[in-house]
Each structure stands twice: as C-alpha cells, then as structure tokens.
Amino acid sequence: MKLIIGLGNPGGKYKNNRHNVGQMVIEKLQLISHNKDILLKKSDSFMNDSGDFVKSMLTKSKLETFNLYIIHDDLDITLGNYKIQFGKGPKIHNGINDIQEKLGTSDFWYVRVGVDNRDPNNRISGEQYVLEDFTNEERDILDKVINEICRKLVIL
C-alpha cells in the first residue's frame, strides 16, 4: 500500500500556481489509476503548514513513512525534469520542512517536480515565483512530466 500526497495551497486562486504542481499530479493520478493499493490525497492546508495534514493521513492509513510519497514543486530542478528519491528533498522548501518536523523524520519518498523556468538575468524571488501561474507554454512541458510521473508512481 502507498499513500501519495500532493502538496499545494487550497482555493481556486492557487489552482494553477507552480506551488500546486503536487495537487496537479494527484488530479491526473485520480483519472488514470484504479489501483486499490494506492491512496491518493491532496493536501487541504497551505503549503507551509503541510505537516499536520500529512501526519494525520499517515496515522489514518496506518502506514510507515517508507510507503509515503510527497509530491511537491522544486526550484532546485528546472521545469521539464523531476526526481523521485527516498530521504532526499530540496535544499529549501517550507512545506517539506514542516512535514519533516511533524513526522520527526525525512525518511519518505520525495517526488520532486521541477518548476524553475526563471530568466537568469531577471530572477524574481522563489517565494514570489512559486505563487505565479504556469504559462501556457510551461503547461505543455509540465503535462508531459506529469504523465511520466504518474506512470512511474503507478508501477513503483
């Protein structure tokens, strides 16, 4: 059994933000996966307060952290790329930091979806950037990545 949680911010105004890429992956997984051994959840809390939600879902599911997959945006990875790693997350990510603090461990799966497509000559802050919507061109790239991530998560 796997518990897969997509991080993001609640509310319609955040739906297409880079920060909500985790929830976008969950929405796609809900359409394509009918595997009874996979629990899919979208976080209902704001990104920086994700830990309580994740801890609650993990407790309810009675699973160990080895079976926990957290899908999140990652500015350490460029748009169009991703990494699925156990026990290794981004350098700086407040949502992930909160989860690690609340669980008391970093030993879970990180599905790190690259969102960085900033202009190196006009680089806005990460905090501002992740709260912006993907452009149409970026969504085309992202849709391909989401499809690939979904295939991997269903067969892992």
Topology:
Layout: E1 2-6, H1 21-32, E2 38-42, H2 50-61, E3 68-78, E4 82-86, H3 94-103, E5 109-116, H4 126-129, H5 136-155
Parallel strand pairs: 1-2, 1-3, 3-5
Antiparallel strand pairs: 4-5
List keywords for this structure.
alpha/beta; 156 residues; 5 strands; Rossmann fold; globular; 5-stranded mixed β-sheet
Describe this structure in words.
It is a single chain. The protein has helices at residues 21-32, 50-61, 94-103, 126-129, 136-155; strands at 2-6, 38-42, 68-78, 82-86, 109-116. It has 156 residues and is of the alpha/beta class. It has one domain (2-155): 3-Layer(aba) Sandwich (Rossmann fold), CATH 3.40.50.1470. Strands 2-1-3-5-4 form a five-stranded mixed sheet, with helices on both faces. Helix 1 (21-32) packs across helix 5. The model has no long low-confidence stretch (mean pLDDT 95).
Characterize this entry briefly.
With 156 residues, the chain is an alpha/beta fold. It has one domain (2-155): Peptidyl-tRNA hydrolase (Rossmann fold, 3-Layer(aba) Sandwich). The chain contains 5 helices and 5 strands, in the order βαβαββαβαα.
